[in-house]
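#struct-queue
[09:14] JT: dropping the first one here, sequence first, then the structure tokens:
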Amino acid sequence: MGTVTRGTTNPNRLRRMDRWIAAVHGAELRRATDPVAVDLGYGAAPWTAVELLRRLRTAAPRTRVVGVEIEPARVAAALPYEREGLVFRHGGFEIPVPGRPALIRAANVLRQYDEDEAAAVWERLCARLAPASDRSRGGLLVEGTCDEIGRRHVWVALGPEGPRTVTFAARLGSLDRPSDLAERLPKALIHRNVPGEPVHAFLRDFDRAWAAAAPYASYGARQRWIRAVRDLGTDWPVRDGAARWRQGEVTVAWEALAPRG
């Protein structure tokens, strides 16, 4: 179920997203009885699935990864890369794995869909996640978009209940201003970057905080970013702390950026 994507992929392209998932969701993966992660739409080559297994196992050693692709030829090409903890399957948004996965990562998959179609995909994928319980918030869907070599990335994290957060991540040396990340907004937000919408106001305020933090540039782009995010947090519900900001990230509550209407 779904549409074949261009299949563009590169080694190390999703490192920022993977690093964030391991840090934020690693504890849930460690607690899971069967920690299965799905790399949905891995593309013409299996590099992202191979890398996801390696990175998640640094946080949760029992994690297994299933690469899922809707194009049969891509699945056939990936089979030689199977190993302990990593398999590849033909399929799409139905997520052809037994049980409920603890993680679904869908990077650069929904760009070609209409906004309403993307919302329906979110709902379908969230329904496939491991449910919440007394000891767990449930599985995590991470859906977003990055550039071809992973310098700029924006993603939404969703649980079984729906969207939770939006994360902006970048190689800071590649940015003139934070709003450069607007071109990588996921489908749910990219058409909402217009006056009157929260995401537009957020990026406007981020640019202002970045400009005000210009004196910190003498200490490097990282220190300027940290200062800008700290100031941004006085008006926006920033969810993370300096340890994540140092990675060139900032995570904001979904409710603050959700489209109006």
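[09:21] JT: and here's the second one, same format:
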Amino acid sequence: MAEIVAIKRSTPEGPVWSSLEKGVLRIVLANPPANALSIETMAALQAQLDGARDDKAVRVILLAAQGKVFCAGHDLKEMTAHRSDADRGRAFFELTMSRCSALMQSIVRHPKPVIAEVDGLATAAGLQLVASCDLAIATDQAAFCTPGINIGLFCSTPMVALSRNVSRKQAMEMLLTGETIDATTARDFGLVNRVVPREYLNHIVGKYAQTIVSKSSSTLKIGKEAFYAQAEMGLVEAYDHAARVMVENMLASDAEEGIGAFLDKRQPEWKGE
């Protein structure tokens, strides 16, 4: 893998802050101790993701958090405060779920690879956030759960992302019991890619990020989009779709350059086309 690149941190402002260094945009949930997905936090995170879509300087996105909790899910205090509304909070609850669903889908549909860097507890919509990312690297201190069942609220929206990462039996185990699983179990379930000691987290995530940065940005976009599209299709439709994508990919300038460089035994010069 490529050499790790140190990321210069900017001064935190608001519930989310970011820094950009050599193609890697690091977005940090900065509202400890819970880093809850309040309306304000989701809007700030969405703005960061939206801003990175067409920014050619951004090649890979890292999603991290401050404190011992990666993300505790929705802000239950914020939601409970709206129970006194005339509609008992229905409109606010609908707004919260709509914003959250849009946020998660924007990660999946984002043209840039998104890597979750998890050092702490990811619960409910926080687990959903991890599961929505393309890759997830966790420390051995990380933990995961969908505890809604414990408070009379089934984790239905986190279920969507969870069930697309782990087997049905494992997803239902987490959803029905609400019990917390450790990082190693999360890796065995397929929720995270790797589990590393805390002191090596930035090093390992940095190596992943820089390895991906070294690839063709247009090819990454094509591949990520195709991966999630075919995953929602039947076998025949998936192969038909993937074949069409391969043909278009072969005609792209970067594929021509990459294949030519391979045959010429030289390093490719990507243009992102």
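[09:30] RK: nice, looked through the second one.
[09:31] RK: DSSP finds eleven helices and ten strands in the chain.
[09:31] JT: good to know. The beta strands are 16-21, 24-29, 60-65, 69-71, 114-118, 121-123, 135-139, 143-145, 181-182, 194-196.
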